[in-house]
Amino acid sequence: MRSTEIKDTEYFPYYKQYINLVSKLPLIEALQLGSEQTHQFFNSIPASKLHYQYDAGKWTPKEILLHLIDTERVFCYRALYFARNENSSIEGFDENIFGANCNANSRDLKDLLHEYKSVREATLTFFKSLTDQDLRKGGKANNNLLSVRAIGFIICGHEIHHRGVIEERYL
Questions:
Q1: Class for the domain spanning 3-169
Q2: Which tens digits make up the pLDDT trace of 104-162?
Q3: Cα-to-chain-centroid distance, residue 133
Q4: Which sequence spans correspond to the domains of the chain?
Q5: What sequence ranges are listed for the domain DinB-like (predicted)?
């Protein structure tokens, strides 16, 4: 399954920006490639930039990495919930509350990258276990329709988006 197979009716229009960033790779390959690229990318950021904020109130690169981790966990939970309980509805989450309470800047980058890798491995294991029928299931998250397969590509695109933001505004 590739991102080009996802129909616009399978996700809230806001997420199109993320899905469009994913190449035409199958989902599992996109998740694997994203893991490698994100790990290399964060390792390449100079230590002097890991706590940098380009403007007051903006996240640091370390906080963005933990945001990616937290968001992947939330989206995988949504995918699990919909795959096991189709047409259900779950609440949204406030990324700013998560960010304000993450303590990323007090953590070592190696530790954050280890957590990232662990979460991505769990994501890969989960998505590999799903059938085509499971991937087509969906529900509502924060009152918006979302399919399981769209969630996988949103995770990939969200990661690409934030790497781009760091490259543009932090480095």
A1: mainly alpha
A2: 999 999 999 999 999 999 999 999 999 999 999 999 999 999 999 999 999 999 999 99
A3: 22
A4: 3-169
A5: 35-166
